[in-house]
Amino acid sequence: MFERLTGTATLNLLAKGLEVSSVRHKVISNNIANVNTPLFKRQIVTFEDEMAKVFDGKIDLVGKRENNGHIPIGEINYHDVGPTTIKDRIHVMRNDKNNVDIDVEMSDLAKNTMTYQIHATRLAAMFAGLNDVITRGGKA
Hints:
By secondary structure, this protein is mostly helical. It has helices spanning 2-6, 9-33, 48-56, 102-136; strands spanning 43-46, 84-87.
């Protein structure tokens, strides 16, 4: 019963958004901490593009399964998509080969903080509504 109430797509996507924001916050914090470390390459968290592919139905490679025991290729739902951390090896800014721009990182941190707050606020509202239904029990 509880799974039917809390296992909705909206709740799962908001929880996944919180997870992505948390990972992104750690990566941005690490980039900021290493702003003066020679040879350090900034890291980036990718997620939104992969999730968009799932919702648009544009998976790069799709395989046909003739047996349920076969490994699915390209059959991905939003539960299977998660944040991926990659190194930015393309951009080099300084002579010490460090490519962290503190201004970019701080703006990314501010954007990520707002995204996290939006997800958390929406989740809290969903649980408050669920709590209201449970405590009132249908009474007006």
